[in-house]
Fold these 4 entries.
Entry 1:
Amino acid sequence: MLVGTALMAAALTACGGGSGSGSSGSGPGGAEMKKKPDMAISVNLTGDQAKPGEPVKVSLAEGKLSQVKVSDGKGGELPGKISDDGRTWTSERNASPGTDYKVEAHNTDSQSASAQFKTVAADKVNKVTINPGKGSTVGIAQPISIVFDNPVKDKAEVEKHLLVTTSNNTEGSWGWFKDYTGNDRVDWRPKDYWKSGTDVKVEMNLNGVDSGQGGGMFVKDYNTEFKIGKDRRLQVDLNTHRMTVTEDGQAVRTIPVSAGTPGGKKASWSGKMVLMTKEGTIRMDSQTVGLGDSYDKMVDYSMRVTWSGMYIHAAPWNTGSFGRANTSSGCVGMSDSDAKELFAEAQVGDLVEVTGEGSKGKAEIGNGYGEWNLPWDEWKAKSALNGTPRNG
């Protein structure tokens, strides 16, 4: 019986391959046991010249993944999901340009593996200008507006990474067009005007997104959040030469005004617009808006309505026309006292609506915020995602 045991031990030792086979520990009778091999993973991005702008994919040859972590050198992580069969993990975000990444993977057998790679820097970087600014309070007509430094050819891909969240599930849609500068621009407007008190959060998860040929890649995320203030509307009637100011649906003030001279370049724009900025005392030079040497003066309580130079402001030199005639060079003028009170009350984002005869029509969408002049279905059609709202 002792002889049989010895033979069995010898056989087990022979099968184990000896210490040179990577064995660890001894089994019964002193037999060497085989060490369980480490798990093996493959990563679609490798080396120090990996291509950015695509998701990271981690694959497992055998077994099932239990956890995968892909982190950069700054403490950030790429979120991702394991496939139903447990064999692959894919990041929900693209790898960013010029970034070192570390991959740490674990399987259901408590084994682990790691890998590293570095993406090349972007040849060209795209950036954005965002409005409204973070922490601001704006009026009920203010859209979310993003203007891009470089062209955006792949608008659908960029739009997929833009998310609007509101405190009351406001319905809205993105729409693409050209800004007054000629740059690509995408705005988000609600189906109807905002409700006062709405909290809005905008997440632009653009890091690692390619804007397409000639536009470059984004190398950071952007975000903003703001609140909707009082429902204030400035309604200018070109026929009666008066502005009616309403707050929460009630008329609170009627102001005698003089708008643009009917006919030609000095007429006012009409339609639905938005109070863009409150600039205060500024120099207005007619040569900058193509009106020759008509005027060059300092103007108080100036509030911009279009990029092309239509303002609401004090115009004491035109007192005789207030409430009687439209004789300005395109702006809506009023007395110093009326302008001062309105300037103090008004907020960026208030609706400005001009009706009546003698205007030069509606301004282009990008000449300020002209999207409210479009029916809802027409606005939704400007989305690169076929009008599918991205809001919550």
Entry 2:
Amino acid sequence: MKIGYIVPSCSVSGGMAVICQHANRLRKRGHEVVYLSIVEIRPMDWFPGQQVPIHDAATWGGDLDIVVATGWSTAFWLPRIAARVKCYFVQSDETRFHPDDSRWQHLTTLTYYFGVHYLTEARWIREWLKNSFGHQAVLVPNGLDPEIFGPAEPLEAKGSKPRILLEGAIGLPYKGMREAFEAVQDIDAEVWCVSSYGSPEPHWHCDRFFEHVPMQDMRRIYSSCDILLKLSRVEGFFGPPMEMMACGGATVVGRVTGYDEYIVDGQNALVVDALDINAARNAVQRLIDDTTLRGNLIAAGAKTAREWDWESSINTLEKFFAELAADPQSWYDNSPRPKYDRSIAFAYDMMSRSVLPEDIVPVTASTPQEAFPPHVQRLAVYMANSLAFRRFADLARVGYHVYKKSRGKAGAIKRRLRRLF
């Protein structure tokens, strides 16, 4: 099969790592796979064994059997890429990435109304897509690659103090890095930090900092540390706790969507409220003091990591794509499916260029609530009240009138010629 993944970035991230696993493993099975990047193309050598070619989505002209959107911003490119089958790989509820009631939050929500084939990595996302939008998403669970993650020689030998690892993009508040640093501020331990975006503030307790770490180097960082503390408030299926388990460490995590895909509190990790700084601090201190508990969690965590493999998941993915390629309607239920609306893609383009204002006008009480999803209503009211959009609409209406008139004249000329000849 010819398969294209529309990607929002070429930089290191957990979401991109999952996409790389899909694409490279499908390629190894003989399929023709490409990345279609909506941003500037950069080398993706941070992912071990990366062999999938990268193309500019804007200039791509090839033919595909299947094209896959991989995030909310890439979903708007689905109508622009020619393919027999169009899919949307949902890795989280990405509306939570944006401020409440912002234009970006509403645009993100609109992508989940698109009438395409859905697949996801976590059970909670599958249920959310079904309950909120009526989609029957196929579950393709994430795995753990033992060639990338496992016990390794530490970057630095462990000393007398325990070593705590904080991992996450500091520049994204919902990753909870500020809270994690606050939790370990007064603990008598070494603190290491890995961030793909943003740096620690000067007053934070941080003994060693790593930025934009290639995946193949992470195992040595994990193996250098005793405890991973991760307090994300937004996740789909978060990989670092499982990666730490595979490398022989103990973990403390926040109670976030997707944690229970593989974590059992008190069995293979400790779970706390992601915003409860005291609980996080106490959990870390408990693992420092109770070496028996820590050993039990490490042993159970290593067993958990061994149970999640990529090959069985790629079997599911390959079967799903093959059935879609053979019969694009095979995974649709009998209910009406909304079609992809190009006007939404146009609205996204206008907003991303800041042509339209930031604030969304609230829906009025007279708006027919049953006619369209609430996010469509809000976007429609918002655009209708935009002077820039009204002017553009007026121009488009004049242009369309001229176009129709010219087509009518051309049709009349053709009919006269047919009568003559």
Entry 3:
Amino acid sequence: MSKLSRIAALVLCPVLGCGAQSAPSDLGPDGNLEAVRGPEAPLSDGGTPTWWRPTPATPIHWHWQLSQDFSFPRDVLPNKTVYDLDGELTSAETVAKLHALGPDVVVICYFDAGVYEDYRSDKARFPASVIGNPDEGWDGSYWLDIRQLDILLPIMRDRMINWCKNKGFDAIEPDETEVWSNDSGFPITKAQNNAFNKAIADLAHSLGMSVGLKGNNTEAPELVNYFDWALTEQCWEYDECALFKNSFIAQGKAVFNVEYNVNPNCTRANQWHINSSRRDLELVGPTASGYLYQPCIPDTQATW
């Protein structure tokens, strides 16, 4: 699990307009999108999705930075084509500068979708009824009652618009969405958890953005049709990587993996075309003293 352990200099609430807002018109009375559309489904105009849908055909060299604000050009790394950064704390200017590095550069917008964080600028929008037990190990973070879609989906949609789409991000990484298997304080079932993940994916696609499945390792086969790619943590440590090989990789969808406590099985990762690496738990920037990055495929290598 990777989150921001400490966040400073948050964007002021008035700038993002984080007051209460009505539910978007494309949400039904139960909070679900009325038109469910998986990533392979045709668009309403008969076309096909134009958002980023990476494949496992060749390695994808990427940089993931969360607990330290990304600074351009300080944190730019050679041969990287994908940057995964905190959506609220990363400016549109930074996203534009990254895109200017080359036509293949993709910038992913990270935010927590399954927990309440008392340091976020829109924290006042979460009523007490949806806030549950502490997310153990992460100060200021509490599990959400993801069954209450009518409350949470409008908030998540506004995050996608204000923190991600309007800043020029290409894709969304919604984190902390595996609530049902944690001590959330709510009797959430796996089916309800899957429904929340599907709704999040549908929201992203309705905005024309790519979206990845974060975590939910054992649920990957059930959710693969709704997401464009996957990011899994510690699947080698817990012997769960085959779940992604047999779902996302089998459907031609890229998989990103990081390990914190063990080295990835690079031989198998490369055979399966999973972008695997060993990283520091805090996911700091490359100039920080705790930075660790040990990829299975060197960033200078273009083939498996």
Entry 4:
Amino acid sequence: MTIAETYTEFAVREARGVSSTYERLALAVARDDEVRALLGTLPPAKRQPNLLFGVVRWLGGPVDDPDAFHDFTVANWPAVAAEMGARATQTNEAGRCAVLLPVLAALPQPLALLEVGASAGLCLYPDRYAYRYGDHLVGAGEPVLECEVGGVAPPSRRPEVVWRAGLDLNPLDVTDPADVAWLDALIWPEHAHRRARLRAAADIAAADPPLLVRGDLVDDLPALAARAPAGATLVVFHTSVLYQVPAPRREAFATVVRELPGHWIANEAADVLPYDALPEPPDEVRHNVLALDGRPLAWTRSHGQAMVWFAGA
């Protein structure tokens, strides 16, 4: 896929109806010969719209005006390129816990959670957040994670978590203001509710920090999994992470995780992991596939705002 096609697809399938600012900006980049040429000097994995837009925001540049964005990006390209090379789209959206909850709550309790690509570990606290599925409320307190759900009854309880750990090439620290600022820069401009949710979730994590280990998802996963306490159900999970991993390493990871005790929850785009058959998605908007132990269960939206269950109970 060309850079223009990547940015057009992002505009149409991810930003449309979700962020008019990023839809407009992505379409502008798709037509911008100069910015596309600069992006072409980066490795393919570093050309992502979310990464470019997040870095420009991190550097104080404008994203609400495509012309001003163009001028800032071109004038500051050495700094933009350096940050894009050093950083990754570590969007740590606690809202994704809302689509994980139906699976987590149904597994044998208590749980030992191990998140691959954990970023700052905000998705390691599904037992500490409150959830609203339509009129159905689960738990209490802040933040409240709202999710539209179809095809399955909302869960009636939160999971019991006795151990939580994350594995990441570059784990972020929720007690570090600079790391939290980077997470904030990755939130789309209009999403004030997600910004407030980030702060509330970061406060929860900072009060009881998880075990975060710097390491590789293939080479270092078994050793970290071995640290989970006996008597708890090990759950290895990841959300919107593997698309950044080359296909051979994805396959190696799948082999390793299947050999671990416990369960594996994947929440990734449909073209990231192989499944024998999938139903048609609800609409043309980009969806993830929620799967348990290699069995696809539901379509989910990327920030956890909706899910449509298609598997049996």
